[in-house]
Design brief:
The chain has about 350 residues and is an alpha+beta fold. Helix content is about 45%, strand content about 20%.
Length: about 350
Amino acid sequence: MPFLLTAAVACLALADGTGMSWLPLLAVGPALAAATSGPWGVLRIGALAVGLGTAIGVHAGTPDRELAIVLSALTAVTLASSLAGALRRRREQVLAAVRSVAEAAQHAFLKPVPATVGHFQAAVHYSAAAAEARIGGDLYALVPTPFGIRLIVGDVRGKGLPAVGVAALVLGVFREAAYDEPDLLDVVHRIERSLARNLGPDDFVTAVIAGYPEADRMELVNCGHAAPLLVQESGVLPVEPARPAPPLGLRSLAGEVPALQEVALADGNQLLFYTDGVTEARDHQREFYPLRERLARHLSAEPSRTLAALHEDLLTHVGGELHDDAAMLLLRKPAVAAAVPEGLDTPAGRCPSRPVAAE
């Protein structure tokens, strides 16, 4: 493109016959090259522009003094553009290095979820609002333990590096406690105690912690988080907490403790965990993303396909760019006798669940 623009200006100058009036436009070539090429590419375009300017000026009979001023300006623009190109190239190298480190940190911080875990098919999709960083304040983990699979999906208050640090703390404690504690509520208590020692007074984490200790029964502890969505033959229903509990880190202020719920899972059922970056995403009319409705529309027998379709639909809804971190984790219990029908209608209501224990 810089070469074509330089050639086009030269052709206009020769066709017009005046020559001199078009010569300053030759500076567009090296200036544009600074955005697309390295320093040597800029110098080549600049040398071409100076050469063409000299030839056109001589052909048009431009006075030496005026021609020297124009050529000096072209040379100065070329040198400045070459320096800008070198600085841009350096910034690109630094950004590439930062992204590679961020990707490595993401794999250690948000470990990939296997396609099959225990009795379930599984998939996860994570999008950070700061796309260059690749990681943010939303968190998830799915681990097999001696007590069945256990998972956490949560959202740290705030954004940026402080939120990433809190999310890393929560995930570290969860992964250790999930292996050690037979009772799911004790896992939650371990996380709460750790956050009480390490969080600031205004920090907290909303989260859903879940476990599958035996066939056909999922345990849930919801700490101020968005209700998971349960896909049954009858439709898509939110698993509302039987008794609301405060977010992690705020128990001492609220004076309430979380309750354990049991949710029945039949063959073919699916359970979607997500963060508010999904449901609070708005379109140009400021309408929230209708996750429950769209989940029924994009539902398939493969969790990875379902989440990929939801993600594309979410980006379409917001116009291509998310403004908050968004995480989705989908579990599907493979059907033995019947498959989960696709394109379910979404009836009103909520998923029945019952409290089991509270402290």
